[in-house]
Specification:
With 166 residues, this protein is α+β, with helices and mostly antiparallel strands. The protein is 29% helix and 30% strand. Strands 1, 2, 3, 4, 5, 6, 7 and 8 form an 8-stranded antiparallel sheet that branches. Strand 6 and strand 7 form a beta hairpin.
Amino acid sequence: MKSYQIKDVKKFMSKFLGGRAFDCFLLAEATITTYNTFVIDGHIVREFFTGDINDEGVLPPYEFSQWEDIRPRCFDLIKGKRTPVNFKFVLHYKPEQIEKILSENEAGISLHDIKAFVLNIKYDGSMLTCITATAFHTFLPDKTPDKLWDNHMTHFLDALEMPYET
């Protein structure tokens, strides 16, 4: 687990809500407080996609909504002249991205052992923080996945030229 205090909130939000930089993530949940508190549960409701006369039998590929699909709705809730009171996003890295990190680094750990590489993005009205976490299906004494995820996020933020403190 690693915490990044983002130094340029406006630049981060521009890339997060206005660009495609975070489209490699899935949205597990979001809470946005502006004039109301909006809570989004990112779990896909599979029943919505089945049983209809127009049902094509195509289900979304993930357990959670893709960030690229839900991003415009979050942007609509946050945009405006007033700064949000606070927000929190819980993002999961897409499974194929996790697999890529594990294989590139010859981690010796299977994707089936890892439930999620998580990125928590929190804003409290003045400070924006990104916190990494790793969720496992079972206990693993090996901390390699945590280190790989932390290193990957450091490189990710550096590639975005995002100023931060750890």
